[in-house]
Amino acid sequence: MKKPLCLFLIFLGICAQSISQTTNAPSSSWAEEVAIHPQNDEAWLYLFEEERSDLEKAKEKELGTIEQSMLKSVEEDISAAVPEGGAAHYAKFILSNYSDENAIESALAAYPENLLVREQVVNRAMIGNEASKIKEHLQKSFDLGAFNAAELEYAENVLRSVAPSGLLILNAEEDAHPIWYLQQVRSMRKDVKAVLLDLLVNEDYALQTAQTLSIDPKKIVGKPRSVQVENLLKQSALPSHLALTNSKNSIELMGKNLFVVGLCFRFSEEKDFQNLSLLEGHVNRFSLKQLSNNAAINRNYLFPLITLRNYLKNSGNSSYQNLDVQIQSLAQQFGLTQLVNQNLD
User: Fold this and answer.
1) Strand order in the sheet with 167-170
2) Domain check: are 266 and 321 in the same one?
3) Among residues 29, 42, 56, 169, which one has the fewest Cβ atoms lying within 10 Å of its Cβ?
4) How far apart are CA 171 and CA 249, in angstroms?
5) pLDDT tens for each residue of 217-241
6) How many domains does the chain have?
7) Residue 6: inside a domain
């Protein structure tokens, strides 16, 4: 039985709620700060990231030449204001499609404890497939407070939802890094191939991914994000999964072949793929100690929990009542009680 996909995508938006890492950035616009203090290098760093985040949200990560040009314009403003600052190097690294290693090393020298910079240092190490550096930098990110308890618990439960030796396609850096931390530092589920879509704009990472999955590189390298998602799911010989936090476009594109099996979708072209038994087994193994702490990522639990709860109730299994407590608590935390109740069978 397949899950009711579109309903939750449209009304709850829970499948687009990524993990948010701490940046220590205020909520006001950084444009105002740099206008008043044009040589505030760290403000420029956050302004660039704010602009990038806004563009990616508007375009669901599919940035075209216009968006790239807009980011390039911000980088030029940074370089004019603080030419040798860490922000300029950070922006150049992003605009190089994560290939300018000297740029990110310079940014790190300027901001050794900045989580945004640390995030990109990890990305560069991952592209280079440098195991010792990946582990070192992920540990440093953890030590600096990059991942809180709820985010790590969520990442653990995502990994528990993936089939043995499976492929897991991740939407954003914020989603990938806690999972990579668990794999590389804590040696949890190292059998899972966790691919970060953001990095596939880098040719080396795209080639590395294609080779690891035995996919024709022409189907991945240089292709639009939506095409990469489709080809990764369809062409990989591994059991393929898409994280709940992927964009609505990616999920709707493959919707008829995506089945909820926990905190991810399983791709299958079988018409009667039995996802609900897998979902029940995975949820029963979840750690759920952090559900009461109001972490934004916890919204994503609603979709699989409601899907399982309705299945159990319709099957005459009274254990659905145990899930009701968790569902109502989460719904209340995020102001979704009325909407959730409308979708309980």
Assistant:
1) 193-196, 167-170, 240-243, 264-267, 258-260
2) no
3) 29
4) 12
5) 999 999 999 999 999 999 999 999 9
6) 3
7) no
pTM of structure:
0.91
What's the rounded Cα separation, in Å, for the pair 122 and 118? 6
Q: Is the model's pLDDT at 286 over the cut of 50? A: yes
User: Which value, to the nearest 10 degrees, does the dihedral of the CA atoms of residues 210, 228, 68, 104 take?
Assistant: -30
Q: Mean of the pLDDT values across residues 23-52? A: 84
DSSP string, 283-328: HHH---TTTTS--GGGGGGHHHHHHHHHHHHHTT-TTHHHHHHHHH
For 271-283, the pLDDT digits (tens) are 889 999 999 999 9
- Find out whether 198 and 93 touch, Cβ atoms under 8 Å: no
Find the domain containing 312 and state its range.
291-345
pLDDT at position 28 is 56
Domain boundary among 249, 274, 299: 274
Poorest-pLDDT segment among 11-20, 104-113, 247-256: 11-20
Instruction: Please check whether residues 160 and 213 belong to one and the same domain.
Output: yes
The 10 Å CB-count burial string (b at 16+, else e) for 44-73 is bbbbbbbbbeebbeeebbebeeebeeebee
